[in-house]
Write a structure and sequence with these properties.
Radius of gyration: 21 Å
CATH superfamily: MFS general substrate transporter like domains
Largest sheet: none
CATH architecture: Up-down Bundle
Number of helices: 18
CATH topology: Growth Hormone, Chain: A
Order of helices and strands: HHHHHHHHHHHHHHHHHH
Amino acid sequence: MIPRPQGREQPLCKSGAVSTHLPPLNNLRWVVIGLIFCATLVSYIDRQTVSVMAPVLCKDLSMTNTQYGAVGSCFLFAYALSMWLWGGVFDKVGSRIGYTLAISIWSVAEVAHSAVTGILSLGFLRGLLGIGEAGNWPGATRTIAAWFSNKERALGMGIANAGASFGPALAAPLIIWLQISVGWRATFVLTGLLGVLWLWAWISIYPKSMEKESQESQEYQTGNEESEHTEGSKSGNHDLLIPWRNLLRRKEVWGIILARFFGDPIWWLYLNWLPKYLSDVRHFSMKQIGASAWAPFLAAGVGALLGGWLSGYLMTRGWSVNHSRKSAILFATALLPAGVAAAYVDSPITALACIAITLFAFQFWVSNVQTLASDLLPVGAVGSIAGFAGTAAGLGAMIFTFTTGWVVDRFSYTPILITAGLLAPIATGVLFMLIGKVRRLDIAPEHIT
């Protein structure tokens, strides 16, 4: 067994030679997760350009709430259907090539938004953006599973999820400042260029082949998962591809998929509709939206980091993976319905505080739910399951996003906020019922035992 690299020692290759082209492995994995955090942050800035500027775009393009909901659904439809494909892509070509393809597509789409002339062209480009951005979460989940030990994976996923929270928090003031300064068309160009900068850093740093990726990352894994006796790497199938039909026969896999289907619409509600809600219901100006809409997403970022940290901390205190993950998920589930109160309070500040609690709890929740795939399955299957779960999440969010526009045009935001509050206990209940005890599943590449 190769011990974990210490101090400034260089990681050993399988041949026993010293690898000198990369930082020490215990440092490189934090560089990798830092890049994934930045990729997630950029993706959420790019997708938020439309929602943050929604009051302006709806006016300039003459969109109703229902039409705006339909445009959001174009993104989510493409996002959902593409995610399961990206899971297979990342499992086959590795993280370096997978992320390069995904970010290239979404950056081109983001820049092209500057040329939209109406609802049809906007809907088409939102779909193209969704195709590219669908690669981020399968890629993040697979990469974290490869580079991090069991006790640290939830923290790694929490760091990645923090990008999904700090991105929207940064997007609100940044995009409104750009829109006021250079107009909404130039704003799309400038935000699209962020992905190009990230891509340069990724290509410069990440290992150049799947073989190298596997060697470098698994040397760390081998020395840090001694207590995981049923780990895929110990059974000899850690990096082998497992057919989807084998995975989908397991109720535990369906537990993750259905939990994301019911739970993720909560996040997408506020991601797509918070600026419109503040404008329509609380009568905020664009400057007021820029000054305040970031706060709930900052709380979400804190939730992502704390949620990822807590389950790992509990494991260091002797708790099992099963009790650690479930305790963190239950804590978050209890807080998630707080957003219902936003429909009934008079103060805009109190409403924002209720929404902030909900988004804090959601990221706390999802950081642990997303980690379950790597708790249950070998690395060779994690990208595929993350893709399936992401597809389910996108479909649930698409249905909810379009429904929101229709309900708001005919009634109000109140029924939507109440429904969102009910989705959290449903998602957790389905998850726990199907997943049973969190443990490593024995799923062979060609059969299930």
